[in-house]
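We modelled the chain as a single entity of 428 amino acids. Its sequence is:
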Amino acid sequence: MTTYTTQMDAARKQIVTAQMEQVALEEQMDINELMTAIAKGSIIIPANKNHKNLSAKGVGKGLATKINVNLGISKDCCNIDKEMEKALYAVNLKADAIMDLSCYGKTREFRKKLVELSPVMIGTVPIYDAVGFYDKNLQDISVDEFFDVVEVHAQDGVDFMTIHAGLNRVVAQKVKKNERLTAIVSRGGSLLFRWMELNNCENPFYEHFDRLLEICQKYDVALSLGDGCRPGSINDSTDAAQVEELIVLGELTLKAWEKNVQVMIEGPGHMAIDEIAGNMMIEKRLCHGAPFYVLGPIVTDVAPGYDHITSAIGGAIAASSGADFLCYVTPAEHLRLPDMDDMKEGIIAARIAAHAADIVKGVKGAREWDYKMSKARRNLDWNTMFELAIDSDKPKKYRQSSLPEHEDTCTMCGNMCAVKNMNKILGI
């Protein structure tokens, strides 16, 4: 019997895994086409061998755009039960992935419980956990200690990890020589930058990248190569540091593929609308077609409290231009830890952006969904409209809050309803 180490290794050996079958069925994709794409790295299936109840999802070219939800415990908000409640709520709202960004307290207890209960893929950023777990000054954390945390996350069943391996000392010099308005806003990137500066050493994840690959290969963890230099304001987008790091990430992608480790690339950040399509093209070229995972992009910096909207605008453009995976942004972005209502707003906004992009990308079933909704509207079939809606609760509440005199109208137009009048005159 032929064995395999990772989904990429299996695809290269022409072995059809259970996870591949799940993805092919959901995406209405030929299994051989899927295997070919996984083998060359344009599609990944994050699926840790220890995540036993995972319902596998594919991320990459030709597939439906996926969305991720961030949550986790921190020093100021360390209620494990509340974050677990958020996670299950995110699953119910059809998030495709959950990233546990926990950095304080019983992080492993929460992570293991999350993996055990979650059918969606789980991601983490191990450096956050390292700082909280060791409870020591950042500069005193050793290389071995960083990698020990990575291995623990892999053992616990995490499907993908954000590792800021591209922020090496050369890229760090670009940051120092090319003044930025908001410097480094990536939490993981800033921690590694500081560690390098304090210890006068190379980024351990860059210097010992092969060690990282061994862990990923052992458990089949997909690498999400983090963008430590992502722009934190539209002023800093597409600058020397961001592009230099992207070049390094492309080089690391090839190294990972040599070891059959699956890779996706993380991207901006804050960025004006007219730069988004170009950035998607640059990433795909420099990173050899690896899937692209973007935060936003947030298209203007002046809307705190509404960044689920600024992000959805950028996300729709990014995904229609080639991005494969959107990280949700909530109204609480830059302001506080999101609550349940914030989460819902962020998830729905991200799902709208993803679906709008899927229509452009020609994803199977995307336009058909809109066709069914339009048909229900033509038929003034309110219940079917509610069933088809991305969020059925909100339109139901609006309808119930202001009932019309006649069931086949709404209180906006009443008997002047254009649809009603056209149906009558056309005999529909």
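As a brief sanity check on the tokenised model: The two ends are 61 Å apart (CA to CA). DSSP finds 19 helices and ten strands in the chain.
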